Amino acid sequence: MKREEMKASLMRYRDAIVRERQMAGELRQLRIRRRMLEQCQGAEAADAAQSIGKLEQEIARNVEESLRTRGEVLALIGRIQDPSENAVLVLHYINGDSLERVGEKMDRSERWARDKHTQALDRLCGL
After folding, report:
1. Do residues 25 and 40 make contact, with C-beta atoms less than 8 angstroms apart?
2. Burial bucket for residue 73 (CB in 10 Å: 0-12, 13-18, 19+)
3. pLDDT per residue over 71-80, tens digit each?
4. Average pLDDT for residues 88-115, to the nearest whole number?
5. Count of CA atoms in the C-beta half-sphere (13 A) of 84
6. What is the pTM of this model?
7. Please, are residues 123 and 80 in contact by the beta-carbon 8 Å criterion?
8. How far is Cα 81 from Cα 89, in angstroms, rounded to an integer?
């Protein structure tokens, strides 16, 4: 697997989390709309309730997918034996930290974090 493909594979978890947050925001807006429409009742309230139900189901599926993806990504990262490379991948791909922030958290430079990130990806591509 090429380095860019590996990065894309590792990014799947963060992408799923972003989708969850977006849908949760939409759900909050629909619930507000439903409360407003419940006072009026009628077709609009029923439509809002139906939209909320569909979105809740989609969020539940997305949460399941995120958990499964997180497990897959963690298993992939777990194949890295070097503790510093492993930590860089977890902080970047699971926690969503920038490589600059990863370096700060590990009391190192951004350049060090970038180098470790590259080494870890190369190692994963070679496994």
Report:
1. no
2. buried
3. 888 899 999 9
4. 96
5. 14
6. 0.72
7. yes
8. 12
